[in-house]
């Protein structure tokens, strides 16, 4: 009986905290329960070629489920002719980042997928670009790019064997999802977030 009362008290406290977070705009309810939505989350991007670690201070966090999913909206740091803005979904457990790119007028440009590994700590995410990229153009053609960069990064010791293998497995999973059509669910996650 004491265990049941203690557990009930724990659940009530948890629900109260969730309600406060939702009311304050720092969380929302999904089918999985309360999910953190906080722009106090710091996001960093690590590239190996060129070597850089950048704080993405202007990225807007639209959705965050630790260990599962991070969705952000952003504008380019440096102006580009090909695209100006993007909405990205990080499928953390799959090591895949899916981005819908748009030009300065809001027109769709392409889907751009990065293979990334994500380091999560409270209030901070660092995603490491593992160099394998996949582009899906508006006409549906798919292009795999930067495989040579991944090989070079491994040869020069910039990434470990474990990172190279993790990147290769994630790339294969992404290409399989494009072939079997399950990639559409990933794209839908991004498109749903664009409406927020």
Structure description:
It is a single chain. With 196 residues, this protein is of the alpha+beta class. It is 32% helix and 39% strand. The N terminus is likely disordered.
Which key phrases capture this entry?
single chain, 196 residues, alpha+beta, 39% strand
What's the arrangement of secondary structure elements?
Layout: H1 2-23, E1 27-30, E2 33-36, E3 42-47, E4 52-55, E5 60-65, E6 69-75, E7 85-91, E8 96-102, E9 108-121, E10 124-136, E11 142-145, H2 147-155, H3 161-180, H4 183-194
Parallel strand pairs: 3-10
Antiparallel strand pairs: 1-2, 3-4, 5-6, 6-7, 7-8, 8-9, 9-10, 10-11
Distance between the termini: 44 Å
SSE topology string: HEEEEEEEEEEEHHH
Q: What kind of oligomer do you see?
A: single chain
Taken from the alpha-carbon principal axes, the silhouette is globular
The radius of gyration computed from the alpha-carbon positions, rounded to a whole number of angstroms, is 19 Å
Low-confidence stretches: 1-25, 28-35
Give the beta-strand count.
Answer: 11
Q: How would you state the average pLDDT, rounded? A: 85
Total helices: the number is 4
Structural class: alpha+beta
Main beta sheet strand tally, sense and closure: 9 strands, mixed
Helix content: 25-40%
- The fraction of residues in strands falls at 35-45%
How would you concisely characterize the structure shown here?
This protein is α+β, with helices and mostly antiparallel strands and about 200 residues long. The longest helix has 22 residues, at about 1-25. The protein contains four helices and eleven strands, in the order H-E-E-E-E-E-E-E-E-E-E-E-H-H-H.
């Amino acid at each position: 009986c004491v265990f049941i009362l203690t557990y009930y008290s724990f659940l009530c406290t948890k629900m109260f905290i969730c309600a406060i977070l939702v009311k304050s705009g720092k969380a929302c309810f999904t089918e999985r329960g309360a999910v953190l939505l906080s722009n106090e989350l710091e996001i960093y991007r690590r590239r190996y070629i060129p070597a850089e670690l950048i704080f993405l201070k202007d990225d807007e966090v639209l959705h965050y489920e630790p260990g599962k999913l991070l969705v952000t909206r952003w504008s380019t740091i440096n102006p580009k002719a090909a695209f100006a803005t993007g909405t990205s979904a990080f499928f953390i457990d799959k090591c895949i980042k899916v981005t819908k790119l748009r030009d300065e007028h809001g027109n769709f440009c392409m889907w751009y997928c990065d293979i990334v590994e994500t380091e999560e700590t409270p209030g901070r995410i660092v995603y490491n670009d593992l160099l394998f990229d996949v582009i899906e153009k508006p006409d549906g053609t798919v292009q795999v790019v930067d495989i040579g960069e991944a090989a070079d990064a491994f040869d020069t010791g910039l990434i470990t064997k474990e990172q190279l293998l993790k990147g290769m497995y994630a790339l294969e999973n992404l290409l399989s999802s494009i072939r079997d059509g399950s990639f559409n669910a990933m794209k839908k996650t991004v498109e749903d977030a664009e409406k927020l």
